[in-house]
Amino acid sequence: MRILITSIVDLKKGPHTRLHEFIRYLRKSHDINVLSVNDWWKAGQTDTKVYTQGLEDVTEGVHTEYFTQRKISPILQELTSVVSIGKILGNINSFGFDVHLNYSSLISGYFVARRLRTIGVNTVYDIADDLPQMIGVSPQIPWIARPAGKFIGKIMLTKNIGIARKVTFVDTNIQALYPAPSDKAVVIRNGVDVELFSPRQSQTLREKLSIGNDFVVGFVGTMREWVEFEPVFAAISRLSAQQPDIRILIVGEEGGLDKIKNSARKFGVLDKTIFTGTVPYRLVPEYISCMDVCLIPFAKHKGMDAGEDGYCPLKLAEYLACEKPVISTQKTTMPEGIVAYASTAEEYYDRILMLYNNPQIRFEMGSQGRKIIQSSYTWSNSASMLEQVLLQAAS
Question: pLDDT (tens digit, 9 = 90+) per residue, 82-109?
Fold first, then answer.
């Protein structure tokens, strides 16, 4: 097949996403063209060349084009993409495509889908996040405009579902929020590369980070508005008075690292916290292997509710694939006993202390977690499912 992808993710500059894995799989058998926003603004926050090390093979042989080369905000890029779509599709011969994959875009993907439908090319719409809710809390949008942006986002998401031949959801919670007809809807969960993400020897890196044999509570990811460290820092502040060997390892910097550092200083744990900054994606498993407990400290009050059936963000699958116990703010798709839950400082204190005192429980949580990931959450399975959906839409 010849597949056209519209994306809100810049594959060349952005962090690892499910789209990277979908393309890595699809490009082996299909011709891929990608239209996306230009993520130039991320270079002001982090070294994008380091960010994307290990992802170079994703774009190899894939034709990628931006809606604009102008240095304007992502919101404006989406809005003004309507003007450039016609010219871009003409340049890449839109009549030759078999199917269109709209990866979580609201405006650009919709207008590409509408144009392609006139020449008989169907669209598959992949919804990987609660996009309207993210607009509603995005710092890239003036606060006064966020309610209107969220409202418009819901309208556009509904229109995208309506125009698509198939709609793929990252989980059943997103599907419940934005339902599609049963003959359209398919759930394709996030996965992990279980060969890359696996338990590693960590002593050398621990020595390099000056961790030694300390007990490490860690996090890997961006410092965006949905991450909340204050309850964690409050718990560590209390714990460190009893257990001085407890440390915090935070891997990543894009989004709001200064705010996180200020928060650590506020709770008196800055000297207990190691900030690595950006690390290459291929080295992330080594940093996870340095952690005794991994965190997913998402802020419930900012609209990131996991819903009744739980969720499985990329970092959860990656943590578990490395056989690490996890403490999550929100319910996950994992069976009872695989993940511990905490959202307040008191709950974090209790969960961390329990895991600190029980190495056998840590081992069992991590070991069972990896088995579940290996059986049910691999990228090869998820990408194969997407390929079948695309083939159905193309036919």
Answer: 888 888 887 777 778 999 999 999 999 9
Could you tell me the two tokens for 111? 């207008």
In a domain, 197, yes or no: no
Residues 142, 83 within the same domain: yes
Structural contact between residues 128 and 18, judged by C-beta atoms closer than 8 angstroms: yes
Are residues 2 and 95 in contact, defined by beta-carbon separation less than 8 angstroms? no
What pLDDT score was predicted for residue 48? 62
> Hunting for tokens 């890449």 — which residue is that?
92
Q: At 217, give phi and psi (nearest 5°).
A: -105, 125
Which structural domain range is residue 222 located in? 203-376
Which amino acid, residue 157? L
Residue for token digits 């008989």? 120
Is the domain of 76 the same as that of 125? Answer: yes
Q: Give per-residue pLDDT as tens, 243-264.
A: 999 999 999 887 678 889 999 9
The reply to whether 270 and 352 lie within a common domain is yes
- pTM given for the model: 0.89
> How many domains is the chain partitioned into structurally?
2
